[in-house]
Structures are given as structure tokens and as C-alpha cells.
Design a protein that fits this description.
mainly alpha
Length: 88
């Protein structure tokens, strides 16, 4: 939706149209891989952070529970990109 400035991206059945939109906006295979990896490891949702704060009553642990998975996701994406550049 962001790339098309429309209310919907494209017909979800038309994967080639989605691919063309992403490629036209600078996406590559490694971009898609890193997006998937980061999505798996990024910061937890706000409900989780609220639960951590309520359980620990500590802003320190709440911020750590935000920062740790985010940092892991960023580091894994950097490593993945480095390995990709070495191989290809």
C-alpha cells in the first residue's frame, strides 16, 4: 500500500505484480530474506512489554526485553547480508 499510494496493494493472487512492485522499489532477494529474519526477531509487541513491566515493575527489564530481540535481529541481518555479499 505504501508503494502504490492506494487503499490496497494488489490482488494477493497475483504474486508477479507484488514482485514487480518490490523490485521497482529497490528490493532484492537478500532484502526479502532480511525482512523475514528481522520480522521473526524484532522487538516484542506492546502487550508483551506491558506484561513485562507489570510483572517486574522495572523499566530496566522492560527496555531490555525490547532491546535484546531487536539487537539480535539487527545483528543477524548484518551477518546474513555479509555472508550473502561474500557468496554472491
Amino acid at each position: 500500500m505504501s508503494y502504490m499510494s492506494a487503499n490496497s496493494l494488489v490482488d494477493l493472487g497475483d504474486t508477479f505484480a507484488i514482485k514487480e512492485i518490490l523490485v521497482a522499489n529497490g528490493w532484492s532477494l537478500i532484502t526479502g530474506i532480511n525482512v523475514m529474519l528481522f520480522t521473526l526477531l524484532h522487538f516484542p509487541c506492546s502487550t508483551t512489554l506491558i506484561s513485562v513491566y507489570k510483572e517486574t515493575k522495572s523499566l530496566k527489564w522492560t527496555l531490555l526485553s525490547f532491546a535484546l530481540p531487536t539487537l539480535c535481529g539487527v545483528i543477524l541481518c548484518i551477518i546474513t547480508n555479509g555472508v550473502w555479499n561474500l557468496i554472491f
